[in-house]
Specification:
The protein has twelve helices and no strands. By secondary structure, it is mostly helical. α4 packs across α7, α4 runs antiparallel to α11 and α8 packs antiparallel against α9. The longest helix is centred in the first third of the chain and has 40 residues. It is flat and about 65 Å long. The two termini are about 45 Å apart. The model has no long low-confidence stretch (mean pLDDT about 85).
């Protein structure tokens, strides 16, 4: 509302007013089309809201009226045990976050190094390419749980001098070994997606192969693979809970301790909910970033 008390125009009237101020008078057909589009948008929003509410109510009634719901509610959705477990779960979550950040940096560095080694050209680099390929193939096929068991329980059994027996460090090493193979494939796909003409243009300007890779290929490749890298980070964050098999008290193990004492499984659901709350923003950010990159590609802009 303006100072005179008049109501400001909205919708089609606002569009017509702005058009007149710019010296353009839209036709009646244009105004009718804009009004139709807005009415369709309002109708779609109302239908979507009503459908969502009805679905939520139907699911709620189906769950609470199903046989065994009361026992399930006491066993898995007990607020008293949730309040009891929350401080311990959050205290253990700090360990998961430290593992995610520390291992994430090492995984990115090692994964990028493996990807670069696998894309080296020339016969002299064949042994390096074979070793990098063998590493990636091995850890891509090796189940994560086996790698963790070998590192956490097998390495201390060797009694090697100077080698740590800390299950937290050994579990982190297992995560780095496994996830670096996955991340290297992501980086390699990004490197190979850069058109060969980019490398040829860099070479024609006098850059060496190493300089062309560093200043031309890698910046484009890394920018293209950011969304899948975020998804790998989400998976890493969840898999940090597996280090609990070595006795490290993270969010998962803290929930397990409380559940073992109370025979109530609410702490497990609480720990899972904490991880979900942490991962949803990352996954939504990855979706937004992917959509943004796709829109820029369709518009002909730089990725």
């Amino acid at each position: 509302m303006d100072p005179t008390g008049a109501t400001e125009p909205t919708g089609v009237e606002a569009f017509a007013t702005r058009a007149e101020q710019d010296g353009y008078r839209p036709s009646e057909r244009r105004l009718a089309h804009e009004a139709y589009r807005r009415s369709r948008a309002r109708r779609s929003a109302l239908i979507a809201t009503a459908s969502t509410v009805l679905t939520a109510v139907a699911l709620y009634l189906l769950v609470v009226n199903s046989p065994g719901w009361e026992v399930t509610r006491r066993t898995f959705f007990n607020l008293d045990y949730a309040r009891q477990a929350l401080p311990e779960v959050l205290r253990g979550l700090r360990l998961n976050l430290e593992l995610t950040l520390g291992c994430g940096v090492l995984i990115l560095v090692l994964g990028l190094l493996l990807a670069v080694l696998r894309t080296l050209r020339g016969p002299v680099f064949l042994p390096v390419r074979l070793l990098a390929t063998a590493y990636v193939d091995f850890f891509l096929g090796l189940p994560m749980i086996i790698c963790l068991l070998v590192m956490i329980t097998g390495v201390p059994a060797l009694r090697l001098t100077g080698v740590t027996t800390d299950p937290l460090l050994l579990g982190g090493a297992a995560l780095v070994l496994t996830y670096s193979a996955y991340v290297s494939e992501v980086f390699r796909s990004g490197i190979e997606s850069v058109h060969p003409s980019q490398r040829a243009a860099a070479r024609s300007l006098g850059l060496t192969n190493a300089q062309a890779m560093r200043y031309v290929v890698l910046p484009q490749a890394v920018r293209r693979v950011v969304p899948p890298l975020i998804n790998n980070l989400v998976s890493l964050q969840k898999d940090t809970g597996l280090v609990s098999i070595g006795g490290a008290i993270d969010a998962v193990y803290a929930a397990k301790i409380i559940a073992a004492h109370s025979f109530n499984f609410t702490p497990y659901l609480l720990a899972g909910l904490v991880f979900i709350v942490l991962t949803i923003p990352l996954t939504r950010f990855a979706d937004w970033l992917t959509g943004r990159m796709n829109r820029r590609q369709l518009q002909g802009g730089a990725v």
